[in-house]
Design a protein that fits this description.
Elements (H helix, E strand, L loop, with lengths): L1 H4 L5 H18 L8 E5 L4 E5 L5 H10 L3 H10 L12 H11 L1
Antiparallel strand pairs: 1-2
Helix pairs in contact: 3-4
Length: about 100
């Protein structure tokens, strides 16, 4: 992950940058408890845990799948454009984002 995000850095610098980014992210999200959105992880992975009614993408998808006008209008209100529109990332990250932006 560090090599993908900091492709222009050496391995140790990329790991340090990832470590610092995780510290910053953890400051934004509580790590334990029953909060609606929190970050969790272990030595191999990190992930965001969110209540299905708090994560806008899940609410958006659920509203798009509904067949009533109110839900579709709510989905339209949530839409703000393509995922990370206007941002470009090194190789593998852009490859991963491409189908999500379509």
């Amino acid at each position: 992950m560090a090599a993908m995000l900091w492709a222009g850095s050496g391995e140790q610098q990329a790991r340090n940058s990832l470590r610092q980014a995780l510290v910053d992210i953890r400051r934004l999200f509580p790590s334990r408890g029953d909060e609606a959105i929190r970050i969790e992880g272990n030595a191999d992975a990190i992930w965001l845990v969110a209540n299905a009614n708090e994560a806008d993408i899940w609410v958006f998808d659920r509203n798009c799948q509904a067949d009533d006008g109110m839900s579709l209008a709510a989905a339209a209100d949530l839409y703000r454009g393509d995922l990370l529109d206007g941002l470009s990332f090194p190789g593998e990250i852009d490859d991963w984002l491409a189908p999500l932006r379509a």
